């Protein structure tokens, strides 16, 4: 893999991992049923969930803007691997 692809994969991988961590943190901070009656909007779950969604969206935008480097035609990729990469890319959106 070329250096640019490694940097992009690392950045997107980090953002995906950060999104997962923020999502799990939001789930841990959510309100319980007993707290619903006295809701005052101070729970951090909404903010954590929003941050998780935004980091995931940024990762998707980075992949979309830079292009799917694994989907470009290279001599070492078979058609079936290329097709699978394109299908995974489309499903990810």
From TrEMBL:
<dbReference type="InterPro" id="IPR052222">
    <property type="entry name" value="DESIGUAL"/>
</dbReference>
<keyword id="KW-0472">Membrane</keyword>
<keyword id="KW-1133">Transmembrane helix</keyword>
<feature type="transmembrane region" description="Helical">
    <location>
        <begin position="49"/>
        <end position="71"/>
    </location>
</feature>
<dbReference type="Pfam" id="PF06749">
    <property type="entry name" value="DUF1218"/>
</dbReference>
<keyword id="KW-0812">Transmembrane</keyword>
<keyword id="KW-0732">Signal</keyword>
<comment type="similarity">
    <text>Belongs to the DESIGUAL family.</text>
</comment>
<dbReference type="GO" id="GO:0012505">
    <property type="term" value="C:endomembrane system"/>
</dbReference>
<protein>
    <submittedName>
        <fullName>Uncharacterized protein</fullName>
    </submittedName>
</protein>
<dbReference type="InterPro" id="IPR009606">
    <property type="entry name" value="DEAL/Modifying_wall_lignin1/2"/>
</dbReference>
């Amino acid at each position: 893999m070329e250096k640019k692809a490694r940097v992009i994969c690392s950045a997107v991988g980090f953002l995906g991992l950060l999104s997962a961590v923020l999502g799990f943190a939001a789930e841990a901070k959510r309100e319980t049923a007993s707290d619903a009656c006295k809701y005052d909007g101070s729970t951090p779950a909404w903010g954590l969930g929003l941050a998780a969604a935004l980091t995931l969206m940024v990762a998707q935008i980075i992949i979309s803007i830079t292009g799917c480097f694994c989907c470009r035609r290279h001599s070492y990729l078979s058609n079936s691997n290329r097709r699978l990469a394109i299908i995974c890319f489309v499903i990810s959106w």
